[in-house]
Amino acid sequence: MIKIERLQKIIAEAGICSRRKAEDLIKEGKVKVNGKTATIGMSANYSDNIVIGGKNINKEEKVYFLLNKPRGVVCTANDEKNRKTVVDLINTDKRIYPVGRLDYDTTGALILTNDGCLANILMHPKNEVERSYYAKVEGLVTKEEVNILKRGVIVGKEKYKAEYIKVRKYDKKTNISYVSLILREGHNHEVKKMFKEIEHPVVKLKREYFAFLDIKSLKSGEFRKLNPKEVKQLYSYKK
């Protein structure tokens, strides 16, 4: 069965731009489907010949990278302040973008790709993709506070919950707790928001795993390509 989707969704999943930007391109008459200029509200399927600015979006080879993101690099494809981005660290001629975000001062595992379909799978909270972090936070994190984060805290309208959390050690001299935790929903700034809620600001944060992928073999700023088996395994997270 051929799957029909809104055109802007197909464009977004191809990694070209956001759905909102895709709608703008359609309104501007810059998108053609099977040789005809597209219109707002139009649907298509993934086998259609979709062209934007003379380029066929369906033909580009999909690429997948795992990066050990260093501190001081922004997690975006383009930066208005001309700061170094995570895309700048990857040697490729493809138009890639990060899957989700890590803060400017956060380090660790980050996937970059031009596969919008996989990116959506990995970022959607319902798919519960594990993200493992190691955090340095101010103060002594107590057992009671650990249990609070396991049950979940409400910040604004969102609930943030740790699937797993353990205090590895506490340094009395520096008044710093070292904490490992696993989250599954992928909200923005979730680790920092959780610890702020229990009054333990994050001093340093590293994402050690994204799904089953770790950065043990990668130095800060290094990357590697994912192999077909790993890509297939990431697709298996779709529910």
Poorly predicted ranges? none
Order of helices and strands: EHHEEEEEEEEHEHEEEEHEEEH
Q: How many beta-strand runs?
A: 17
Kindly state the percentage of residues in helix: 10-25%
CATH H-level superfamily of the largest domain: Pseudouridine synthase I, catalytic domain, N-terminal subdomain
In the CATH hierarchy, the architecture of the largest domain is: 2-Layer Sandwich
Quaternary status of these chains?
A: single chain
- Strand percentage lies at 25-35%
Number of helices: 6
Task: Please state the average pLDDT score.
Answer: 91
What is the structural class?
A: alpha+beta
> Terminal Cα separation, in Å?
19 Å
The biggest sheet, with number of strands, parallel, antiparallel or mixed sense and barrel status, is: 9 strands, mixed
Note the overall shape.
elongated
So what's the CATH class of the largest domain?
Answer: Alpha Beta
- Could you tell me the radius of gyration in angstroms? 20 Å
